[in-house]
């Protein structure tokens, strides 16, 4: 089986075997990453008579890999995977490596022990200590973390930046900003995320300035991080980045705008949503619609797909309507009900010659997905005319599906026929 299949099946036994025994460090690294991502599946129930839970087995394997694997990248990935399993898993690793039991210590005492670990000889212990301090979130360790932004090991600097972002301490912004201009790209990415998570005015200014840098990679990093802010201030910067000379920056800007919709606080959500729509309507259509379609086609993030579907119906027009319709019709069969509803609602905003006929053919095709046909009936109830009324009258009489018949009557009621009125596209 491939690693993808093992991930899909949550096959912990085989993933651990790859982590422990594969001769390929890339496979071991990826196995560690997958084991981290499966944390919620590693419950405490025993498996096939094994008295130990998958969680115990995974943590033991990751602790061993964090210490003993010959690859720096695998050891780093194993520590990050332990982070996914929580503070207890990290402390097990730190205890094994340092010889100090952290289990019964108060949080502030743990923080002091971990702060001492930042200067340990083993870089893996410094990495784990930084990660653990980020989880504890004690403000009194910020200065110790800031001091390690100059650690000789880039893996440590990366996790120190990540920890400072978790703590969200404004006092760390100047030091993070300094490193943002002189470290390697892998560290700069985490610094950018940390600045976005801290979110103070000076942190935002740093990201805005770098979004206009000459270095294409730096612009992309800054634009990526701005999507985490959830603020109106970031929208205009990201909208401007949609016309960047670099394709990677333009696409990242669109992904960030979509992500920003998800990150927006409830009390500012409507304002941010309206601001984004306004900026996208003013932008070049090709720079907006194609990336949104790409998100629907490729993204596996539910929130991204929902927001992309919602936006597409509000920014597509003229030359992009046909491509947007294709993407939305496909998305109406999405497994996520809210994504499917957003796609149907957006499609109803993009009426044009040929859409009614296309949806009628879809509804009448017994080989098509029923969910897709239900959503098509909803859209026809919004955009249909005499042709839809006549053909749907015949359709509801002959369909064997109670659900399709109900939704067909609902569409007919909106078109002037007889049925139950409902605004629910499901």
Automatic annotation (TrEMBL):
Report any Pfam family annotated for this entry: HEAT_PBS
Leader sequence residues? none
> One MF term in GO for this entry?
oxidoreductase activity
Know the name of this protein? HEAT domain-containing protein
Q: Which organism is it from?
A: Natrialba asiatica (strain ATCC 700177 / DSM 12278 / JCM 9576 / FERM P-10747 / NBRC 102637 / 172P1)
């Amino acid at each position: 089986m491939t690693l993808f299949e093992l991930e899909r099946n949550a096959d912990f036994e085989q993933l651990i075997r790859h982590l422990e025994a594969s001769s390929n460090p890339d496979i071991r690294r990826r196995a560690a990453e997958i084991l981290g991502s499966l944390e919620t599946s590693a419950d405490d129930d025993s498996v096939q008579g094994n008295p130990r839970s998958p969680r115990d087995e995974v943590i033991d394997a990751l602790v061993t890999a964090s210490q003993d694997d010959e690859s720096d990248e695998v050891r780093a990935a194993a520590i990050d995977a332990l982070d996914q399993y929580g503070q207890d898993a990290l402390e097990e690793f730190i205890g094994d490596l340092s010889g100090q039991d952290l289990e019964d210590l108060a949080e502030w005492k743990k923080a002091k022990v971990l702060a001492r670990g930042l200067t340990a000889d083993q870089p893996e212990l410094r990495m784990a200590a930084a990660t653990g301090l980020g989880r504890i979130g004690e403000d009194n360790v910020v200065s110790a973390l800031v001091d390690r932004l100059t650690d000789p090991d880039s893996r440590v600097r990366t996790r120190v930046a990540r920890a400072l972002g978790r703590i969200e301490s404004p006092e760390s912004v100047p030091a993070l900003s300094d490193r943002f201009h002189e470290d390697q790209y892998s560290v700069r990415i985490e610094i950018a995320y940390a600045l976005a998570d801290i979110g103070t005015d000076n942190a935002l200014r740093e990201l805005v300035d770098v979004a206009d840098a000459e270095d294409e990679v730096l612009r992309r990093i800054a634009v990526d991080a701005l999507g985490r802010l959830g603020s109106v201030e970031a929208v205009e910067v990201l909208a401007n980045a949609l016309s960047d000379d670099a394709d990677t920056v333009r696409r990242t800007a669109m992904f960030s705008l979509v992500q920003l919709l998800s990150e927006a606080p409830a009390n500012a959500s409507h304002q941010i949503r309206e601001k984004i729509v306004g900026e996208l309507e003013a932008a070049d259509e090709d720079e907006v619609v194609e990336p949104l379609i790409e998100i629907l086609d490729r993204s596996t993030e539910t929130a991204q797909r929902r927001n992309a579907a919602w936006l597409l119906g509000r920014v597509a027009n003229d030359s992009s309507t046909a491509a947007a319709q294709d993407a939305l019709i496909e998305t109406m069969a999405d497994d996520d009900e809210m994504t499917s509803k957003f796609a149907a609602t957006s499609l109803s905003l993009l009426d044009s010659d040929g859409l009614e006929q296309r949806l009628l053919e879809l509804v009448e095709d017994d080989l098509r997905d029923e969910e897709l046909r239900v959503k098509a009936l909803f859209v026809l109830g919004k955009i249909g005319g005499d042709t839809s009324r006549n053909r749907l009258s015949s359709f509801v009489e002959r369909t064997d599906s109670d659900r399709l018949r109900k939704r067909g009557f609902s569409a007919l009621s909106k078109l002037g026929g007889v049925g139950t009125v409902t605004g629910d596209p499901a």
